[in-house]
Specification:
16 strands; binds serine; about 575 residues; 3 domains; nine-stranded mixed β-sheet
Length: about 575
Amino acid sequence: MWTAKKLVKAYLDFFREKGHAIIPSASLIPEHDPTVLFTAAGMHPLVPYLLGQPHPEGKRLANNQKCIRTGDIDEVGDASHLTFFFMLGNWSLGDYFKKEAIEWSYEFLTSKKWLGLDKNKISVTCFKGDKDVSKDEESAKIWESIGIPKELIYFLPKKDNWWGPAGKTGPCGPDTEMFYDTGKKKCGRDCKPGCNCGKYFEIWNDVFMQYNKTVAGKFEKLTQRNVDTGMGVERTVAMLQGKGNVYETEMFTLIMKKINEVAKEPNEKSTRIVADHLRAVVFVLADEKGIVPSNVEQGYILRRLIRRAVRHGRLLGIEGSFCKKIAKKVVEIYGDEWPELKKNSVHLLKEIEAEEEKFAKVLGLGVKMFEKIFKKQGKISANDAFLLYQSYGFPLEMTVEIAKEKGFEVDKSAFEKEFEKHQSLSRKATAGKFKSGLADNSEITVRMHTATHLLHAALRKVLGKHVQQKGSNITPERLRFDFVNPEKVSKEQLEEVEKIVNAAIKAKIPVEQKEESLEEAKKEGALAFFDAKYAPEKVYVYTIGNISKEVCAGPHVKNTSELGKFKIKKEESVSAGVRRIKAVLE
Ligand code: SER
C-alpha cells in the first residue's frame, strides 16, 4: 500500500537518482521574510536562490517541506483542505527546465517502478497566455510528445495556471498541473481539470519560474530559468489509496479515532477540524522558533487554531479538556520522523493545555453572559453578539449555535459590519501577511538582516554565550530578534549593545561569504543552531570581521558601512527565558 512514508521515500529516491540533493525541511516560521507568517510552500525558503544566489547544495534540490496555509481555514473539513500539510518538491535553480521537469513528472507518476498510475487517467493543464506572457505551447508539446492526447491538455488562465506572489513582487511563472481522473461522473458539461467537484484530483504542479514581478506590476525575465514543483503528500496518498478524503488515510485515522473515543455527539466535520487543527498546532509549537499562543502574528494563528479546536470539541459534546490527549497522539504518530515533536513534547503539551483552559473559562463566562442577556431581552442582537465577542472572546459561530437551539437567529451581516468597523485598522495592518507571499529582498531588509547578525554578536558579548537566536522577523520598518536570556536586559546593557553594533558599522567592515560543510563551519566557531537531523550538508557562513560568524542563507550587505545608525526601540519578554528586541536603522 502507498503509505505517506513510502510515497515520500519514493519521491526523494527518484529525484536523488536524477541528481538532486535532498535538503531538510525548513522551519515553519520563515526567517527574514516580512511578507508571510508561515512557510506556505517548499519554494518559500528558496527565494534568494531562485533569484540567482548560488545554493550551497547545487542546482538540483528536492525535499519534503512542512507547510501551513491559513487562507482556506473555512474549507477545512472537506475532502482535501488542510491548514498544515507536507509538500514534496523538486527544484532546478537555473539548470534543467520544462522538458526534463515534465518528463520526470510523467515518469514518476506512471512508471511501474514508481507510482505506476494508469496513463489513460492523467490529464494536464497549461498556461493559456495573456497580455503579459504568451501561451505555454512549449509545455503542451512536451506533454503531447510523451503520450498525453491533445484533448486531455487544457489551457487555463493566470488564475489557474500561474504560480507566484499574489499582488506582490518576486519570482513567478506559468505552471503545468497534473490531474488524475477518479472515475466519478462529470458534474456538468464544463467539468474539466481544475473543477472542484472531485472528478479530477490535482496531484502535482510544475512551475516554470522565469519571471520576477516588479513593484510596477511588470514581469521581467529572471537571469536564470527555474523549476519549482509541489506535490501535496496527504492528498496524493488519499488518491493512491483510493480514498475519498485525506482523513481516511493513515496520516489521520488514529487521530480521528482518538477524537471519536471522547466525542459524545459524533459529527464528521468537527472531528476533521479538530484533527487538522491540533496536528497543525503540534507542529507549530514543536518548531524550534518557540512560537506560543498570543494575540499577534504566528502566536495569534496558533491561538485561533487551538480555540477553534476546543469549540468544535464542544460541538462534539466533549465537556472537559481533551486537546492534550489528541496532541499526544499526534506526537506519537509523527514523532519518529519529526524528532522536534518528541524533543519538545513537554513544552507543547503544556502550552496546549494552558490555552485550552484559558479558553474554556472564556467559553464558560460567555455562555453565562449570553443567558443573562437572553433572559432580559429574549434575544441576542448583532450588537450583543459583538460585545460577547469583544469582551469575552466568545466566537460568533458559538453565539449563532446557541441562539439556534433557543429558536432565534443572530443577524450575521450586522455583526460583521460591527466587527469590520472595529477591526478595520488592525486588520489592515496584518492583512497582507495572511496571503501566501514571497520574500521582499529589498535593500532595507537586507541591511536589517546584516544588522541582526551584529546585534546577535553584541548580545553574546554583553550578556554571555548563553544568548542564542530563537527567532527573527524583518519588515522594512524594523527588525525583531528573539533570543534566550533568563532575565530582562538592563538599560545599560542595551546601550552597550547599541554601542558595539554602531562601532562595527563605523569601522566599515566587509561582510564575507564562504561555503563549507556544517562541521567545518562549527569548527571555525560559526554560530549555527540546527537540529542535527536536519542539518544540510553544505552551508554558507557569513563573517563580519572578528565580530560575527554565522551560518545563514543570506542575503547580506557587502560592507557594514551600508547600514546607517542602529537603534534599539524596545526590549520585552516573549515567553519564559526568551526576550525580544525591536530595533531600527536610521
Ligand atoms: N510553489 C508551487 C505550489 O505551491 C509549486 O511547488 O504549488
